[in-house]
Known about the structure:
It comes from Aspergillus wentii DTO 134E9. Helices cover 48% and strands 9% of the residues.
Amino acid sequence: MTLTVHHLKRSQSERIIWLCEELNIPYELKVYAREPTLSAPEPYRNIHWSGTAPVIQDGELALAESGAIVEYILSKYGNGKLVIKPDQPNYADYLFWFHHANGSVQPTITTMVFAEFAKISPDDPGQLIMRNRFQIGLSGMDKRLGEFEYLAGNELTGADIMMVFSLTTMRLFLPYSLEEFPNIMAYLDRVGKREAYQRAMKKGDPDLRPVLDGIPQDTFF
């Protein structure tokens, strides 16, 4: 069976390409451009009933959701790499940052993006709450990365695979600055120098300059 990664350009599916490159496992990559509305094209939406990115196929299995896919690949093909085991002291840290990515950070950004689309005033109480929540999250992450090189400790893990998209490519949709968070900036510099990350970005989005700057130089809008 061949593991197939279906990549929607400029989307969370870049995580899965990066994961496969870090693990150095064989996989087939299929790349899809977004429609003018930024939606996934119909062939992509038909792979899994959810119609969302990312999605993989492994034999007869079609699986969506970033966290589920990352856990699936790590469990089935990872050979113990990029995970923290329950008997290790930083296991809880690994779990927290792994799930914090799509449990808190990404939903908060997405909510703010939709608010921009809807032209909701920045002074709207809901917007103020979201921005404050987001700043608290970034501050906590910056503190953590001042103590360790990566989120779960001093080695890259699945928690980083989950988090980096929200700090980089997602800023094409919401161009927020990271300049006041020097430890996050240093973290992104380390990630950007990883050969597996560089290969993944070139394969999935060859025309995109990775969004590793404090202030994004490019946006969708």
